[in-house]
Amino acid sequence: xxxxxxxxFVLFCSVSYSQxxxxxxxxxxxxxxxxxxxxxxxxxxxxxxxxxVHFTVxxxxxxxxxxxxxxxTYIPSRNEVAIFNDPYxxxxxxxxxxxxxNKMDDLGLKDLGFTxxxxxxxxxxxxxxxxxNKKEYQNVKxxxxxxxxxxxxxxxxxxxxxxxxxxxxxxxxYYPQFVMPSRIxxxxxxxxxxxxxxxxxxxxxxxxxxxxxxxxxxxASAKLVEMPKKPKK
Length: 233
Fold this sequence. Notes:
The chain has helices spanning 2-16, 95-100; strands spanning 21-32, 35-46, 51-57, 61-65, 70-75, 80-85, 114-122, 125-132, 141-147, 150-157, 163-174, 179-191, 194-207, 223-225. It is mostly beta strands. The protein is globular.
């Protein structure tokens, strides 16, 4: 019965999301070599693929992008804008996109050429192992763990079987149209003795609330520069 209800929920989400605007506040704390860096931003995502990210801490700037990676980065204090095209900045790489578009099963791994090569049960936890035939990922193995059909953990391994990155998804919040984790903790291992810990907290998640930032555009008077100095995504 639970499986049937979950399938119905996913179907409802995939139909409903197509007309939605979603916004959220995000606080990121990153620990690098014992130092804590705090980043604050607000994200405004539309089902058309337009994504606006308004960074406020440590510096104010805007990133406007779409599903193709066509991106504008605007720094108000200098009235400068950079325009570039990079798939890395695609709005489809934003966490909200995966959960709104019913891609929470693999969180975008399929788009990178990854396929499931094995599955197993560890108690009540389902563990899937992914690999890819793409050249840039052929030496990478990914394991993703699920509880109650939702991803709770993901690990990336190199060709030696060493963990390169671990991601924990927790504090899920439920809405009539979708469900998503409000806390993401990521640990990246640069070496056996060096790691970077990043925690993202999502709050004030709103659906279809009118906000002028959904329609924000870079001022026509902005000076065009070659590249943004601090593009963050």
